[in-house]
Amino acid sequence: MEVKVSIPEGVEARLEGFRLTLKGPLGELDRDFYNRGIANLIKMKLSGNEVTISTKEESKRVKAILGTLKAHVNSLSEGVTKGYKYSLKVHHVHFPMSLERKGNEVIIKNFIGQKDIRKSKIIEGIDVKIEKQEITVSGLDKEKVGQTAANFELATRQCKNDRRRFQDGIYIVEKAAPLNQ
Description:
The chain is an alpha+beta fold.
C-alpha cells in the first residue's frame, strides 16, 4: 500500500530519513515524522516533486497512519505557499477588557472586572495583530497558528458562570483560512 503526495510547483523539498523540509515563497517548514512505533512499518521517499509514503502491511491502523502523514505533508506544503490565518473576536458585555502585547505574551486586563491579569502565550514564529476588538493570528505552521488561537480562548475561559449570560471572552471566528484572503 502506498500514498503519493505531490508538492506544488515553486516549493523545494528535501527528505532526510523521516525529516521532511519544504521551502516555498513564504518561508521554510520542516517536520520530523520519525516515531518508534511506525519507523519499521513506513518508508518515505522523495522523487522529483512527489513524496511517496509506502508500507508492506495492510491493516486499518497502517492505513490511518498513511492518511495522517499525507494530511501533514499537505498542510506543510500549503503553509509554505499560502500560510494560515485565524480570526478571533474580543467580546465583552459587562466590563471592557484591554489587551496588551509584551514579547511573546498577550496580557488581558479587566476580564469580567477581575483585578488580576491573564496571559496568553504566543508560540514562536507566529504573528499576532490586535486591532481593538479583532485579533488576527497568522503564520506558516497550521498547528502553531491553531494552538496560539486556542491559547487566547483558554485564557478567557469561564467555568462557573452561565455562558448564556456571561458572554465575555475571546472567541475564534474563522479557522485556518489562507493568508491571501
